[in-house]
Each structure stands twice: as C-alpha cells, then as structure tokens.
Specification:
Order of helices and strands: HHHEHEHEEHEHEEHHHEHEHEEEH
Helix content: 25-40%
InterPro entries: Cys/Met-Metab_PyrdxlP-dep_enz, Cys_b_lyase_bac, Cys_met_metab_PP, PyrdxlP-dep_Trfase, PyrdxlP-dep_Trfase_major, PyrdxlP-dep_Trfase_small
Organism: Sneathiella litorea
EC number: 4.4.1.8
Pfam families: Cys_Met_Meta_PP
Shape: globular
Strand content: 15-25%
GO molecular function, one term: cysteine-S-conjugate beta-lyase activity
Number of strands: 12
Bound molecules: pyridoxal-5'-phosphate
Amino acid sequence: MKDETKIVTAGRNPEGNFGIVNVPVYHASTILFPSLAELQKTHVARAAGERVVSYGRIGTPTTWSLEDAVAELEGGYRAQVYPSGLAACANAILAMVKTGDHMLVTDSVYGPVRVFCDNFLSRFGVEVTYYDPLIGAGIGELMRPNTTVVYTEAPGSQTFEMQDIPAIAEVAHAKGAVVLTDNTWASPLFFKPFEHGVDISIQAGTKYIVGHSDVMIGTVTATKDYWPALQKGANMLGQSAGPDDVYLAQRGIRTLSVRLKQHMENGLAVAEWLKGRPEVHSVLHPALPDHPGHDIWKRDFLGASGLFSMRLKEVSREALAAFLDDLELFGMGYSWGGYESLIILADPTTYRTATTWDNTNPLLRLHIGLEAVDDLIADLKNGFDRLNAVK
Ligand SMILES: *Cc1c(COP(=O)(O)O)cnc(C)c1O
C-alpha cells in the first residue's frame, strides 16, 4: 500500500471500538482487575514487554493507535510516544548510552539536544563530539572504541545541510554503533529512515504530525533489536503523553499527505521567488537544484516540507526589524509544521563548535504554511519595501 492509503488505515481499529472510526480517547490512571489471577497474568505479560492495559502511564489503546501509525509510516518495528519532541530526542539517547560511552552528534543538531548533551549527559560521564554535518563516510576518523551512538539530522536545523546518512550508517554499523536520526523535517512521509541504515528515528510530532500548532508530542521508532531498550527506558523514566494530545496527533496523521504536498509546493514557490530578490543573499532549501546537498536529497528523500532558510544581504538591524515587524501572514515564533506561515531570526555562530558559520548575512528561517502563495509573496514583498525604505 502507498503512504496515502497507509495514513488512512494505520493504527485504526473500528472493529474493536463499536465501529467508531477513530480510536477513542481513553483517560486512564487506575485499571481495575476482576481477579487476582487476572492481575498477576497482566503483571507477567507486562514484564515480558507485551501490550496490556495495566496502568495509565504505560499506555492505552489511544497511545497504541498513534504508536502503530507512526511505526508503520516510518517503516520501523515499533514506536514509543513522549510528551514532547525534545523528550523523544533525550529519551532515545538515554536509552542507548551508559557512563564511559562516546557519542557523535552533528553540529547542525536541533539546539536543545546540544544543551541536553553538554549539560546533562556530561554529568553522567558520556562524552560528546560534534562533527561536520557534511562528513559522510569520514565519520570513521572520529569513531573511538567506546563510540556507541551516532546522532544525525537531515537537513540540519536552521542551516539545512544534507547528511549522507547511508554512508554514515555504514561506517557506524561496521564499528558497532547505533544510528539515530531526527526525522522531523521530512516527517514519516518524505524520508524512510530504516531503508537508509537508521536504527532509531525521532519525530517531533509537535510539527507536521499534529500540524495545527496546538499540541506538544514526540515519537521514537526503533528496529526490533533496539526496541526493548527504548521501551524500557521510557517506562523507567515515566514518559507519558496526555490522551487528548495523543488523539490529536493520530488525527493529524490522517491528513499528513495532502498537507505536506501543499507545504512542499508552497515552500518551493516562495523559495524560488526569494532567490530572485535583490535583498536575498542565498536560499537554503535542499529541493532547489543549486543547494549543495541537492543530490543527496534527490537520492534519499521523497519530498520536501515547507521549512527552509534564507540569508539576506548585509542589512541594518533597523531595516531587518522593519521587514519583520509588520509582516501580516508570517508570524514570528518558535516551532513550525502547523498550517500557518512563520519566520524567525537565527544565529548559528552562537552554538556551532565543529564548523564555522559566517553571520554577516542574517539567517532567517521560514515555515511556509497553507496560505495562497500569491498572498505570502505579497506579504514578503511589502516587507522588502519597508526594509529598503529604512536601509
Ligand atoms: C521542534 C523540534 C524538536 C523538539 O520538539 P518539541 O516538541 O518542540 O519539543 C526536535 N527536533 C527538531 C528537528 C525540531 O524541529
């Protein structure tokens, strides 16, 4: 079955729910058992990793509906739900490392993951080395005998470098390391991590899976080999997402393909228009043929989402503020993946350590929503008029 069909069928169970199309929202903490025998049977099954309704925190049919849908779409064995995308990142890492391990993390990683590595993992004796996102098979030179985790993300947060994940995975596996990827940009539809050597794939469901800017949630999908450690880790750390949020995430999946196709089309149209503007230094969008990572994108990815960056030619802070402050359709704020367009200023010089970044040309990250492209372009054009009036 194609993905367009899978997003309709995955994780649903009308037969088990009175014919109700969506798996209902089960609010639960206590689960009552009719007998001692049943209680003990459930206890044994749960300890063996079986799916049983035993306590609210451990999961309900609502949770499993989302987990099954994400696992099927990403192409992994099973998935675990977390209360945010960052919780998914942190828990995926924690489930894989122990004191004395060394981990390799791309320099283009989502910022808060770097904060977690530098300030939390370091307290437990896990050493992290950041690497150039373009390193490819060269990652072998950074691998140590105790390197157990290689963490990837493509394209890179804010800066959109494409990583050669199959090449990195081949080297990592040869040396016995597990490969993680943050697959949020592509969503489960536009990159199939498990077909490219990834063992564990993370989604900030907050973005495209939810798609409506109103829920924090995360998922991690693993291969059969890594699943037990991931699940045990989540249970030990008490990871549990609220049922209403889980429900909204599984509902978001039902329209993921139509939304993403539109985000891609709108995003490319705006990106190409921006490329022709005299105020713009460059546009960082992997689906544009002149992007340095375009060949990798074309080889490994099935589409592009609506998130990319642009760099402006040198501009004063006043002119930049004039551009940003009065945009009507582009909101200024964090996160992305909802139906609406967003823009935010970023400065990679404040966090990069393995690579350098020249911030002479201010970096703006755009999320292109589902509005009409003409209206978005008109909004940006008015912004450039204001910028030029100040400059
Ligand atoms: C937003 C984001 C996260 C974190 O997700 P939250 O739900 O905001 O915690 C992780 N990775 C990437 C690439 C993101 O964009």
